[in-house]
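Lab meeting prep.
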Amino acid sequence: MRAAVLHETGQEKLEVLDDVEAVGFGPGKVKLRIRATGLCHSDVSAMSGVLPQPAPFIPGHEGAGEVIDVGDGVTGLSAGDRVLVCWLPACGECPSCKRGQTQLCLAGFMNAGTPNFKRPGGDVFGFAGTGTFTEEVVVGAGSAVPIPDDVPFEIAALIGCGVTTGLGAAINTAKVEAGSSVAVIGCGGVGISTIQGARVQGAAQIIAVDPVASRREAALRFGATEAVAPDGLADAKQRITGGEGFDYVFEVVGKSATARTAYENTRRGGTLCVVGAGAMDDNFQVNMFELFFDEKRILPSMYGGGDVLRSFDRAIALWRAGRIDLESMITHRVRLDGVNDALDQMRTGESLRTCIEL
């Protein structure tokens, strides 16, 4: 079967090959035929080594498709079912799951170290235990979440990661209050979803911050009340909040420098929500006096900060009701052979989300 493979961490290009085989099918597993997958910035971060992932590997974790086969012991799924890929499934048994913090379950991460593909030259891993830049993939049954027939594969794919992450940051983690002021730093697919979440919550002012003009323009279409380049944030803070700072600031880049900017633009007693996934050696610093004196809440948000199955259902309900716009987030569509063009579009900021159709 065909798949896009990164041979070594640090390479910028993927090689589309036709000698890849999905392996690992058996009890508790399902085999999927991927129909659509989104390109998420986390895929690029894994390729560059910012996020840890053994190589060679197949990127992609934001996918949707159909069940081909189910292994022994799998219930609730059968061949032909339409599903989205949940890259961080809950095991239901660990302490995090039992506390209701299923987004912190580590069972899915353990899968990232087990190859689920092979080629004549050896084993190939799937990013985050999935690997959706391929025609077929084998995953644990918990990673295959049924979707209603009226949800297109490309929409379901976005809900599988970026949309759930951004909406959840605003709704679950920060719990944005109606009438509040919000700034979102980084307006790619996850940032745009965060903006839409803040809008659903009733924020009065939503300021989008991004260096790319096309993304700032897009942010206005998705609910931002104003969009500025990074050098315009200080002026926006002064005009909108009287210099006090925003009630909520979302960092959706994954860098300590932007996290520090977000902290400085959060009002005393306000909330900084860290949504971007960054490198292990990139340290965010605050001094002990400001940490105590400013009483700013620093809230990381992992995969939307809540039960992902519930979040999937909520995203579908909001989309059906016209409260969020997911179709317009897909700015580019390519076949698998065009995956490297899609990577370039993401790196330059030209795209919000590219859908790879298989």
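Slide two material, second protein:
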Amino acid sequence: MTTYGGHEPVFCTVVPPHVLDKLAQAEDPALAGPARRTLQRDAYERTHRRLTTVLGAPAVAPPADAEPDKPLRTIYDARNGTDLPGKKVRGEGEEPGKDATVNRAYAGLGATFELLLKAYERNSIDGNGLPLDATVHYEKDYNNAFWNGEQMVFGDGDGEIFLDFTIPIDVIGHELAHGVTQYTANLTYFGQPGALNESMSDVFGALIKQYTLGQTAAEADWLIGAGLLAPRVTGKALRSMKEPGTAYDDDVLGKDPQPATMDGFVRTGRDNGGVHINSGIPNHAFYLAATALGGHAWERAGQIWYDVLTGGELKAQALFADFATLTVAAAKARYGDGSEELQAVQKAWEQVGVRTL
């Protein structure tokens, strides 16, 4: 199979299918209609991504005159259509315009680039200065954001359940982190490897938000998608890394199904084997390790997770135990035997019920 730049991209959305499925069954057409259209559009984009992977998509290289260690951002406006990328509305270095959505997307791409560069010495998501492209105002009432293997895409939300998807910076970071995974461990998007894929995006999405706000692990809310839910929704975010399963409990959306430990592991054939559900387990392990260590989570806990993701030993089919074992090894290699970092990581996995081999 021909793959994108030697890496096989997948279509990754921030709102799980089980949430949209629930909305699509709502009696109120104002809720069900956008959810159904979003599911249909996601299915189309997912199929399109597979076809592109089979046929082969060209690798994207930065222009010859690109400044080293500087982002190269381009924001496009789909104008509520579906043709990508759309009309260019802001390029790198250009002043903010009147469209707040465009400005948020531009800032979010920049914040992601900055964290990767300053914290981990990584030049863009591929490590080689990959240009960062994003399209806003995608479709009408589109209730999702996604990374399609080549660029970011943001919907405006329906205004009833979801607001503009550029509002939470961690959503922007989450989707771009799928690109980092694509260019490194390339975790298979199914079952436990897929849940790890989703968890890596939640971890780095949370770190980007914390880095931007200058928060310590103790100060952070550890929520993914805070500010995304409309006022009528009984909930605070899409997911909680601190308390998986508590992000929302709503008459229309249902209850957050994420487990915090292996005791609650969900076996399902939906959502690629529950990738957005069981990601709560490694998410919680990271939260536990980061808060045990204190300080800025991107510095020690984040460094360990980054070492594993990019170290070359994490296999595409890795299970939770494989990943956990590698984090223990990475903590030992970077910080030493008997270090508090090693102890924090070991205890975190023990608390969520994942054995280290």
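Talking points for slide two:
The first strand starts at residue 12 and ends at 13.
Residues 1-7, 52-58 have pLDDT under 50 and may be disordered.
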